[in-house]
Amino acid sequence: MSGKQLVDRMQSRVEQAKGMRDEEKLYRYKGVLYPCIMCPEENLKALDSISARADDIMLVAYPKCGFNWMVGVLRQIIAQASGVKEESRMPPLIEFFGPEALTNVGNAPSPRFLGTHMHPDNIPATFYQNKSKMLVIFRNPKDTVVSYYHFCNNNPVLPSVKSWDSFFQDFMSGDVPWGSYFTHALAWEKKMDDPNVMIVTYEDLKQNLSEGVRQISTFFGFSLTEAQVEQISQGSTFSAMKERSANSHGNMGNVIFRKGEVGDWKNHFSPEQSQQMDETFKNRLEGTRIGALLKYQLHCQ
Ligand SMILES: Nc1ncnc2c1ncn2[C@@H]1O[C@H](COP(=O)(O)OS(=O)(=O)O)[C@@H](OP(=O)(O)O)[C@H]1O
To answer: Membrane-spanning regions, if any (predicted)?
Structure first.
């Protein structure tokens, strides 16, 4: 499917959603909420048929942790390393594909660039069995929930949010699409020694994108010159990607590329909400390696 066809398909789904009631927009599959339009049950069931390859380039992120940012970075790395310039396309989320598109994925040449928001234990086992390399991007939970809140408010395929306070509570209890942030983080904790998994954070990349690009390309076995690393980093800043977003993401460009900052939570959280998040982080993630990677004290306190 061409980039234009994908953007058109996304936009027709957005139009379809505008005719739906909020309570029709989410459903549960194996206990986790998913958006009906983007990932109907047939899409999730079809994932059982996917066959992973060792040279697949897999990108994984809990929603709003920087998935689209890394899509931009990886596309440029692949283009620079292979010399093939690819037109910008919509995010390659396997749960959005459906049976027909998955058949095309099966016939696509290597290396395939695929992605998902799924919980690590729900990613098809074939990716682990066949040792596909996975890049995981995580973000501090306070900025993640703020980004998620704005996204739900501006994305017709998701139910609009009643209030910041109610969305915050839903996020804390994991009652949001793709499930609990904390459950995802704890599951990645168990995979931190897997040589085929690389976990990066939104905040570290904001601080030093060039170093991130260097490490990510090395992880996937690409060797780039310093000039290429710099070119990719400059082409992947928030402002550069936002500028291209009407072309790459159609009407959703301005929704996905919203603010792109660390610390926007300070404009949304009440002192009580901040304390509740601090306590939850302490109870669930303090003392874990993924918790340390997130630098909670620096970014959230
Ligand atoms: N290049 C770049 N630099 C910094 N930040 C960036 C960049 N690209 C996207 N973003 C920010 O990432 C947030 C969207 O996350 P996702 O792409 O994971 O969203 S989605 O779940 O796939 O819809 C969303 O965060 P917020 O702005 O805080 O809402 C985007 O602005």
So the answer is: none
d(CA 57, CA 114): 6
Going from N- to C-terminal start, the domains of the chain cover 3-300
Interface ipTM > 0.85: yes
Helix (H) or strand (E) holding 299: helix 296-300
Rounded-to-integer distance, Cα 236 and Cα 74, Å: 10
Q: Which pTM was predicted?
A: 0.96
3-300: CATH, from 3.40.50.300, 3.40.50.12160, 3.40.50.1820, 3.40.190.10: 3.40.50.300
Q: Is the CB of 205 under 6 A from ligand 1?
A: no
Annotated active-site positions, please? 117
Residue of minimum CA distance from atom 15 in ligand 1: 64
Closest ligand 1 atom number to CA of residue 259: 27
pLDDT digits (tens, 9 = 90+) for 125-182: 999 999 999 999 999 999 999 999 999 999 999 999 989 999 999 999 999 999 999 9
What lies within 8 Å, CB to CB, of 190 at 6+ separation is: none
Q: Which residue has a Cα nearest atom 22 of ligand 1?
A: 67
For 115, the enclosing helix (H) or strand (E) is strand 113-116
With a 6 A CB cut-off, is 188 part of the ligand 1 pocket? no
